[in-house]
Amino acid sequence: MIWAQVMGITFIAALMALYEWPRLGRGRKKEKAAFVTLTALGWLLAVLYAFNPDMPGPTQLIDAIYGPLGKILEQ
């Protein structure tokens, strides 16, 4: 069942890439690199959540990083 989810995630990511890639235009290497990087990162996170649904989310990571800073600034 998990592999079906991974295939669905991959299919949707591929559809997104096929739809957006021609719209980026020629000569936009930085935009294309950013698109590929963000799409791959999003795909990786989605696959990780499919295999481990109890994994903490990205907002919990940000809270762990900036939580102590917020407490210092409140004082």
In total, how many beta strands?
A: 0
Helix and strand pattern: HHH
Please estimate the helix content.
over 70%
Uncertain runs are none
Distance between the termini: 50 Å
- Domain module tally: 1
Question: Based on CA inertia axes, which overall geometry fits?
Answer: flat
What about the largest sheet? none
If you compute it from the alpha carbons, what radius of gyration comes out, rounded to the nearest whole angstrom?
17 Å
Beta-strand content estimate: under 5%
Number of helices: 3
Describe the structure.
The protein is 84% helix and 0% strand. The protein has one domain. The termini are far apart. The longest helix is centred in the N-terminal third of the chain and has 23 residues. It has 75 residues and is mainly α. The protein is built from 3 helices and no strands. The model has no long low-confidence stretch (mean pLDDT 89).
Please supply descriptive tags for the structure shown above:
single chain, 75 residues, mainly alpha, 3 helices, flat
Question: Can you give me a brief rundown of this structure?
Answer:
The chain has 75 residues and is mainly alpha-helical. 84% of the residues lie in helices and 0% in strands.
